[in-house]
Amino acid sequence: MRFVGIDIGSEKHFFAVMDSEGRVTKKATPFGEDDAGYSKLRAALGASTDTLVAMEATGHYWQNLFAVLVSMGFAVAVLNPLRTRRFMEVDLKRAKTDAIDAVGLARFAYEKRPASTPLPNEAGLELRELVRHRDRLVQDMGDRVRQLHRILDLGFPEVAKIVGDLSCTLATTVLLAFPTAKAFAKTDITSLAAMKYERRTVGVELATKLIEAAERSVGQHHGAAYQLQARHACEDIIVLRSRIASLDEDLSATVKKHEIASLLTTIDGIGDTTASRLVAELGDLTRFKSADALAAYIGVVPSIKHSGKKTPSSQSISRIGHANLRAKLYMPTLAATRCNPWLRAFYGRLCASGKKPKVAMVAAMRKLLHAIYSVAKNKRPFVPATAG
Questions:
Q1: Alpha helical stretches, state H, the chain
Q2: What is the torsional sign of CA 65, 66, 71, 74?
């Protein structure tokens, strides 16, 4: 059997080959991320029989090569870079190059024999791209709102207390027309009250509050540069808000068509976005041996450090796992502890027994993952087990 290690780069990759005895039969060789480079790799590897290829999930650069190798019949194991790095640190190597890493990956495949990674279906890939694209849009939205906050702190700091969320339609409508306190003070109550947003008008009461606050505002920066930044931020927020809403509709439609994703929404606290994220990031949830394995993969497990006579006074959550997914599950778990009677009771029992709220929340997240795994495994809607 042969073991191939491929170190992934943005424009150039390296591959090395080991035989069944652990001898390097092909030194690390570079090849490009193009047709000529792939042809060079195909010619060097030959037949796909009795060959295991190991590569790291480096950014997005591995995806084309992975798809091509799988289509050629190769067994390809996509590895967590943390796992391979810890493996290579055992030999205390002082140097790290792409060529050395390719050989190290081949040796990892030879010694560990990792399981091959299945090629995800097209629907799953598209769903993952949509979910991650939505995350980027939400991040951009947050950046623009923070930028608008900064400008208003300089030109009209009182307005945020009156209109509330600066990303809402009311805020962007009035601030696009009047980006500073001086601009508000120059208008009249009737004109401001007649402004429309979402089939509603600002109204006399709110218009009066805005103008009175503008006349007494402590904001001192009303120049053209500040007005321009405020208007640009409002315009960007409007565009991003529309895109996120449209993307949410696409995700909801996709969830209805996906068997597992639609079943996950039967759990109170799991909406269309969270169900899409779980399917997009985890793929086939039944590939995990148990719900505990799923929780360990995400990292909802304690990090126990107990040696000799030293007994830690507290424990933290493990840092190893899918940190991004773990962070995105916090708000759904929080919502579930409030609207899901089954999980609310579990969370309440932990708090009543003296557990700290954050500790109880992590335990509730793990409990929620058990429910998610059960629904995916049995392919049936969620039915909570009630106490007798």
A1: 35-45, 63-71, 81-89, 98-112, 122-155, 159-163, 169-177, 181-186, 189-193, 204-215, 224-257, 259-264, 272-282, 291-298, 323-328, 330-339, 341-352, 357-378
A2: positive
Q: Nearest-CA neighbor of 172 among 198, 135, 204, 154?
A: 198
Q: Which pLDDT does position 329 carry in this prediction?
A: 95
Domain edges within the chain = 2-112, 126-252, 259-378
CATH number for the domain formed by residue range(s) 2-112: 3.30.420.40
Long-range contacts of 299-304 (CB under 8 A, 24+ apart): 299/323, 299/326, 300/326, 300/362, 300/365, 300/366, 300/369, 301/366
Q: Give backbone dihedrals phi and psi of 49, rounded to 5 degrees, phi first.
A: -70, 140
**pLDDT given for residue 40 in this prediction:** 96
Domains 2-112 and 126-252 share a fold: no
**Cα separation, 274 vs 280, whole angstroms:** 10
CB 117 within 8 Å of CB 78 = yes
pLDDT (0 to 100) of residue 127: 86
54 close to 109: Cβ distance less than 8 angstroms? yes
C-alpha span between 76 and 73 (Å, rounded) = 9
Is 206:164 a contact under the CB 8 Å cutoff? Answer: no
CATH 1.10.287.4070 matches 126-252: yes
Q: What is the pTM of this model?
A: 0.84
Mean pLDDT, contiguous 10-residue spans, the chain (388 residues): 96 96 96 96 95 94 95 95 90 86 96 91 83 95 97 95 94 95 93 93 95 94 95 97 95 89 94 93 91 94 76 74 93 93 94 93 96 95 71
